[in-house]
Amino acid sequence: MQNCNCNGREPVSAPCTLVYDLDSLPLGMAYVPWQQFDTVYEVDKALGCGTIFPELYMPFLGKRGAMR
Q1: Helix, strand, coil shares of the chain as percentages rounded to 5?
Q2: 41: exposed, middle or buried (C-beta count within 10 Å: 0-12, 13-18, 19+)?
Q3: Where in the chain are the domains?
Q4: What is the rounded CA–CA span in Å between residue 60 and residue 41?
Q5: In angstroms, rounded to a whole number, what is the distance separating the alpha carbons of residues 26 and 20?
Q6: Angle 54-66-29 (CA atoms, 0-180°, nearest 5)?
Q7: Other residues' Cβ atoms within 10 Å of the Cβ of residue 63
Q8: 12 with 6: CB under 8 angstroms?
Q9: How far apart, in whole angstroms, are the C-alpha atoms of residue 7 and residue 16?
């Protein structure tokens, strides 16, 4: 359950905190696919892309769900 008394419009005297009842939250499950080590970028391109693996290069294009 969230419990926060600030609405974001008025100044508050103390920092806003959220309180959760952790026992009521569901467990999270992660999915991590196997990565195939096939090809890698050249050093110059890897530095520009932020990764040496082409499969992991997913630039932010300004809209949700956009792939390459």
Answers
A1: 20, 0, 80
A2: middle
A3: 27-56
A4: 19
A5: 12
A6: 80
A7: 6
A8: yes
A9: 9
Triad 10, 18, 65: Cα angle to 5°:
95
More confident residue, 52 or 19: 52
pLDDT cut 90: percent of the chain above it = 25
Residue 52: pLDDT over 60 = yes
As a whole number of angstroms, the distance between CA 37 and CA 51 comes to 13
35-to-24, 27, 54, 58, 66 alpha-carbon distances in Å: 34, 25, 11, 15, 21
Residue closest to 41 by CA, chosen among 57, 27, 24 = 57
